[in-house]
Amino acid sequence: MNVQDEEFNQAVKNLFRGETMERASAARKLGHFKQGRATNLLIKAIKSEKDPVVINRIIEAMGEIKDAKATLSIIDYLKNEVEKPEEEQDQNRLFLIIESLMKIGDKRALKHLGILLDTCNNEIKTLTEEALECIDPNWKNNIKSK
Prior knowledge:
The protein is built from nine helices and no strands. It is mostly helical.
């Protein structure tokens, strides 16, 4: 087994069994590997994770890997955030969600991201428009035709 495989396996172990910061670091490391084989593991981990920092690192890692299999898991967190009153939303998480969905580029994210166009937060609105543009350059026309 090569060094990268050992590091990958150690990161997976830490993702599920480590202390909070070890789990966050493991998620980030798995993202840096940019290997699709980590996607299902990250999806499994995010379903049981309770710590907000670790959840954010997992979302970030999913974006780094750019595997469309992660889209629906990230959208679930987007839905949870937008259900909250705007002043209670985790702005940092919203940025990570938008950036990750933009990197993945899966068109299934378009309608969910579109909800954020109504936000009062100009930075989120601007990043959302960039994400929509990146995922589908014709998003404005496609939204009108639906």
